[in-house]
């Protein structure tokens, strides 16, 4: 195991492989029980997992903002998460970073026989997607994942997981034939939510609200939309318009807390007219 005194840790190189090894060595030093960082030493898979998710979202955020100057750093932060988990796994005797890299390399080659094998590259995107799913189905079968929904990660954002679950079910015919049935289901779920609000308790209200969100994701899927991406865009629009409200109020020496709904609604409409 490399030590903080190892000069190789401090020397940048021009090799992707060498820099990968350097990052792994740095992580090993941070986790060293005698000379490492107390915070890094205390961590485990469960405590680091939220950071992994956060870093992935920060990568997506940089891309959404087209902040290309930030993207390199965000990808580095995400790469550190991979190395952190691999180091903890190696310490526990589960697997190493080498196993991680070998595994993903083998998977990518196996999943692209039209590039690395003898299959024809003359395929439509739809055909390639179908072939990809067949390969993944075979991989799931090899891991004894026999259920249609097996393998859809629990840790995914809820909207993303809902979409993946629905896509899996749709492949075996469990799906509405058109958006009309989905919209009708939305109306039904909305009515059930109102009834729960008026007559039932908090647990039932939460359940009906979840059902409504789930079917909204389904409508997006039928329309060819990604609910996560759509909601992210809506969040961005809300942020821009509310910032406009704050800026306009500031011109009058006011804050939102000093205003009222009617005034802020009018400013919201003004932001809409400006295309924000």
Automatic annotation (TrEMBL):
Reactions catalysed, as given in the entry: ATP + H2O = AMP + diphosphate + H(+)
Domain NTP pyrophosphohydrolase MazG-like residue range list: 43-116
Entry EC no(s): 3.6.1.8
GO molecular function: ATP diphosphatase activity
PANTHER family recorded: NUCLEOSIDE TRIPHOSPHATE PYROPHOSPHOHYDROLASE
Family: Belongs to the nucleoside triphosphate pyrophosphohydrolase family.
Protein name as it appears in the record: Nucleoside triphosphate pyrophosphohydrolase
Organism the protein comes from: Rhodobacter capsulatus (strain ATCC BAA-309 / NBRC 16581 / SB1003)
Lineage: Bacteria, Pseudomonadati, Pseudomonadota, Alphaproteobacteria, Rhodobacterales
